[in-house]
What we know:
Two copies of one chain form a homodimer.
Chain A: H1 14-29, E1 38-39, H2 41-48, H3 52-65, E2 68-71, E3 75-78, H4 83-105, H5 110-129, H6 135-155, H7 159-169, H8 175-183, H9 185-204, H10 207-238
Antiparallel strand pairs in A: 1-3, 2-3
Chain A binds a DNA duplex (30 and 30 nucleotides) through residues 12-13, 16-17, 40-42, 50-54, 56, 72-75.
Amino acid sequence: MTTEELAATRKTGAALVDDLAEQIRNRIMTGEIPIGAQLRQAELASNFGVSRTPVREALRQLQTSGLIEVLPNKGAVVSVPAPWDVREAYEVRAELEALAAARAVRRITRGQIDQLRAANQEMYDLSVAGRGDGVPAQHDHRRSNDVFHTLIASISGNARLSKAINDINETFPRNVSAQLIVNDSRHRDENFQEHERILEALADGDAQRAADQMREHVIKAGEQLARWYELRSSTVFRG
Amino acid sequence: MTTEELAATRKTGAALVDDLAEQIRNRIMTGEIPIGAQLRQAELASNFGVSRTPVREALRQLQTSGLIEVLPNKGAVVSVPAPWDVREAYEVRAELEALAAARAVRRITRGQIDQLRAANQEMYDLSVAGRGDGVPAQHDHRRSNDVFHTLIASISGNARLSKAINDINETFPRNVSAQLIVNDSRHRDENFQEHERILEALADGDAQRAADQMREHVIKAGEQLARWYELRSSTVFRG
DNA sequence: GAAAGTAACATTGGATCCAATGAGAGGGGG
DNA sequence: CCCCCTCTCATTGGATCCAATGTTACTTTC
Lengths: 239, 239
């Protein structure tokens, strides 16, 4: 299908705009729209079968969340994350997820621990099975990883905390980090074991350890992502 | 002057929309536009001397940041904060500001400590002088308070952290907390002394204590704000 | 042949238009 | 007397319009 108007079964108002923003965000997150790419209003409008008006409102939302940058009279481009900015953001995210893990200790149930363990195992299996399979494997992997992290955040019982973590996550396309973990067995194993350590701390009811393990894990993930963007920018300058 | 078009000297594009969003946000933050109030596009448009188009984009930005809610075909209203939501948000803010304080310890200079001390003293003096003077005193007080907190955040050296803290702050109108502190001498004194304790920890280079004091201070402020909203909602239901 | 100017084209951006939905008043029926 | 229906008005929301700005390719000149 050339357009996705079928999916947007005649929504209207805030619903339509939010939906547009969500779909554009997804395309950026998955890398379908690459970093630095121009977002032309007319093109997006025809893609989604609407006029430019709601598209522009959706772009404003994405601008506010920092995923795109809007230059006066030049339009919107997907933000290219600076490595230092990634490190800063992940330091914040690490602290927030550490808080979430600490809080989750007091509220987590046996069933939820099993759920988390299953998500982690699934993520590992997907990584092993999908080596080199490219985009779909990365996509599935990212989903399981998101399940793991968002589940802990939601168990924390603080909706604002979940939202704050999510807001940071939505700032950077993360298909790249999935790529790393899927294709590099060392990263994959480390990632799996870090999750397991967090799980153990949660199961033990050790809030301090859960927080520390989570903080360390997220910082490490951020470092990998920052490195990837460093590599990428130097490649771009060469190529 | 009836309109503020003078201030908006023919801006255009993202600059105009951002400016509109900023001005509307200010009016909400100061209470000039009260909580729960309807925001009519046509009214705002004529107030600012523009058409409804950029106003709608500005409203989308405010919607994304959570300050207003947009209901389909019914327009935008200023969000009325639920007390539990305020507590949750301030728990997050407390953690972020604690991190900022801890990080600031390693970077703060003697001059900056003096600056902070001056801001705190000014805030106290303004509170004493402005008792009962109403809106202007509250406004000045809130500004000095903001200086104190944003300065520490900026000293932390993590721009994302500053932004995350700011994003949470911009979610709730805070004229009310200023009102509390200006008019209640006990709150005023406690606020002053909490700031002093944070300053001492910063001056001593004690990251742990700075973080703990800051966390406690912000949680307490959040509790006050939440209480205020509780009181308000029960009053509204009676009146 | 290169650089600068210019003219056509593409794109953004605010204003305006009209359809659609919602709110409220007035009137008719139970 | 109260309830409900309908008609009208206010407001939102997407589409369209036109001016303004930016970009690119072509031409002209040195």
